[in-house]
Design goal:
By secondary structure, the protein is mainly α. About 80% of the residues lie in helices and about 0% in strands. The chain has 27 helices and no strands. The N and C termini lie far apart (about 90 Å).
């Protein structure tokens, strides 16, 4: 095996890994974050969790990706350690699907035409062509992501073929043959598989390399078996690396991955080699050579057998993990706990990262709504302690804006579907509007404090008018936040008509104040405070309108906010004016 064969092997491995990454990325985008969301919820029983892990991993073709997501979920507080164990075992079985796909290369040349068609070199060019056409000509993200899956799979298979071709010269290399014999020692074989998989961080890729090597006809089953077992342990390196910097529960998930694999290897090895010593299995003879199919069989059988043995004992594995990974003393901070869901691990699954950001934005919006309403209540009944509490809440909202905006900007740096890209833009706009509403809450508190400190009071008529517009602001705030939290477009459509009413109320109250001032029924000082309150109310309504318009425009895959506002009376005339007339009667002065 010369330098050119080694370069060909490296190139084939690079294509293999790149193809696997592209295929997984396309599948994740095609799922729109649903796989990850399902993964975080449907774990009520061990068996359900197992099936869930199996299905998701079989689809995305990476147990490492599944376990890394689990580390992120637990670190973010979305899942508990116990929920992840069944999923981890399912992922271990699900990842064996790749080996079966790669075993298609073992189909012989003497096979029938239909069977030969399933050889990689036969169907991958067709997949590559279909994928290319979908990517170039597809008008929707769904078609382009499907094309990406086909292209990724084709590249993966071409990489596998390149690795196989590069190893063809090993048939006549006696040094290589003598080297392989050394790995008949189970311990050395396990260490070899572990190190190889730890380096490339993919058990599917390392199994693929072994399958490619087996095509030479030089790999005995007694050599392949312990290497495969080691490869299963080596794949736990990825979640362990991912857990660095995570909380205690996240590190426990990574350790649970390692324990499940190690315990499985110890049990299977002990029982299998004991039975082999007693019964002498024919396939464990040195002359019995492995091929891609029986490597896939061994890989799958090990994971199924170890899962059957360990699945009933997940609670014991959980206790073992908790006992060995001790809780660290850490500071309790609301901001740290709150923002755990903005986990960098989710950035490789942008659709899910966007969804977790949306949930946090909804939380931020509800806090802001309650804070503003309480600050409005202080205008008639000032409480210094309550005011201080609300000011602290505003500081928290500022932290929300900073954390969420920074995270969304990180998300935007990844390859996003058009839908996810629009949602990131929407959330960035919405976060800004929510933070501005919180700022107006501070201004209203300042006005309430001034009224209390100076012991001044509005006239009965002014109080009545302020009460009317305040009720309108409370309703528009509730409507816009409810529309945001529930993604309800019907509610969002009610916001703009009410915003128009609040504008008119603002102007009319100011005119009425000027008239009272002329008649000597009010003072200039009260006028300044009244104007300040009204301006803040109007700005709050504007921001509520922005939030609602954002929701409506993202549904149309555009952000022509000004165009929407100018055309809303024409495009939805009947609905708009019905709501407008309803609010006009409700908030009449």
């Amino acid at each position: 095996m010369d330098i050119f064969a080694i370069l060909s092997l490296i190139g084939g491995l690079a294509l293999f890994l790149y193809g696997m990454d592209e295929m997984g990325d396309g599948l994740k985008k095609l799922s729109g974050g649903k796989l990850e969301t399902i993964l975080s919820k449907l774990t009520s029983t061990r068996f359900k969790a197992f099936l869930l892990g199996l299905g998701v991993t079989a689809i995305i073709q990476s147990s490492s990706a599944t376990t890394v997501m689990l580390v992120g979920f637990v670190n973010a507080g979305i899942m508990k350690l116990g929920q992840t164990l069944g999923i981890i075992m399912g992922a271990n079985v699900g990842t064996t699907v790749t080996g079966w796909l790669l075993s298609l290369s073992a189909i012989s040349e003497e096979s029938t035409f239909i069977l030969k068609f399933f050889k990689p070199e036969s169907f991958t060019p067709i997949l590559a062509l279909v994928g290319l056409l979908l990517i170039m000509a597809g008008k929707s993200d769904k078609k382009r992501n499907l094309g990406k899956i086909f292209i990724g799979f084709a590249i993966l298979m071409f990489g596998m073929e390149a690795m196989s071709d590069s190893m063809g010269g090993l048939k006549d290399d006696p040094a290589f043959t003598s080297l392989l014999i050394k790995f008949e020692n189970p311990f050395l074989g396990i260490m070899m598989g572990l190190i190889l998989t730890a380096i490339i961080q993919s058990s599917s890729a390392s199994v693929g390399i072994l399958q490619a090597l087996s095509i030479t006809g030089l790999v005995p089953v007694p050599v392949a078996l312990p290497i495969i077992l080691g490869q299963n342990i080596g794949t736990t390196v990825t979640p362990i690396i991912s857990s660095i910097g995570g909380n205690t529960d996240a590190r426990r998930v990574a350790m649970a991955c390692l324990y499940i694999k190690m315990i499985g290897v110890v049990i299977v090895c002990s029982v299998f080699y004991a039975l082999n010593a007693a019964l002498g299995f024919a396939f464990m003879e040195k002359t019995y050579m492995a091929n891609p199919v029986n490597i896939a069989v061994i890989h799958t059988a090990f994971n199924i057998i170890s899962t059957v043995i360990l699945l009933p004992f997940t609670s014991l594995i959980e206790k073992l993990t908790i006992a060995t990974v001790k809780e660290k003393t850490r500071k309790n901070g609301k901001s740290t706990e709150t923002f755990k869901t903005l986990d960098p691990r989710f950035l490789t699954s942008p659709a899910f990262a966007v969804e977790t950001s949306r949930q946090l934005v909804s939380e931020m919006a509800v806090i802001t709504k309650n804070s503003l309403i309480e600050s409005m209540n202080l205008l008639g009944n000032y409480d210094a302690d309550k005011a201080d509490e609300l000011l602290k809440t505003e500081d928290e909202i500022d932290i929300y804006e900073d954390k969420i905006s920074s995270y969304l900007l990180q998300v935007s740096e990844y390859k996003l579907s058009q839908k996810d890209s629009h949602e990131v833009s929407q959330l960035l706009h919405v976060v800004g509007d929510i933070e501005r509403i919180s700022d107006h809450s501070v201004n209203i508190i300042a006005a309430a404090k001034e009224i209390h400190t100076k012991e001044i009071e509005f006239s009965n008529e002014a109080q009545r008018e302020i009460s009317v517009i305040a009720n309108a602001v409370r309703e528009i705030l509730s409507l816009s936040i409810e529309a945001l939290v529930n993604q309800d477009l019907n509610i969002a459509k009610k916001v703009e008509p009410l915003e128009q009413i609040i504008d008119k109320l603002n102007h009319k109250i100011k005119r009425n104040h000027v008239e009272r001032l002329r008649l000597g029924e009010c003072t200039i000082e009260l006028g300044f405070i009244l104007s300040d309150i009204l301006n803040n109310y109007e700005r709050v309504a504007d921001h509520c309108s922005n939030i609602a318009v954002c929701l409506l425009e993202i549904d149309n895959n555009s952000f022509q906010t000004h165009e929407y506002l100018s055309n809303v009376k024409e495009t939805g005339a009947n609905e708009f004016f019905e709501n407008y007339d309803m609010y006009k009667q409700r908030y009449s002065l």
